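Folded chain entry —
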Amino acid sequence: QVQLVESGGGLVQTGESLRLSCAASGRTFNFNYYPMGWFRQAPGKEREFVADIDWSGGTNYAASVKGRFTISRDNAKKTVDLQMNSLKPEDTAVYYCGRGQWPSYDFKGQGTQVTVSS
């Protein structure tokens, strides 16, 4: 069984930063070999790709967050982090961690709320 648990969300003002973290676990989950990603969903909107990172550290970003967000992973700790800088109100959403590559994540976490006030 695979478990992904996100943390780090909160309420911030425009221009501030947050760091999200996703902790992975599972007896048979060989974290090192899987791409991992973050996506988000705002109320009344479709899910939206944010960023992903492959097993070797190669990254992809949505155009809307490129230059502001940084995804990273620590294979020893089995974590995937999302550093979010220069946050905007349009970044407000529930952020999810997923195993795999967008849009085909086979496991996801419960999500963490990020709210950016103007």
User: Anything to note?
Assistant: The chain has no helices and eleven strands. The chain has a mean pLDDT of 96. The first strand starts at residue 3 and ends at 7. Residues 44 and 53 are 27 Å apart (CA to CA).
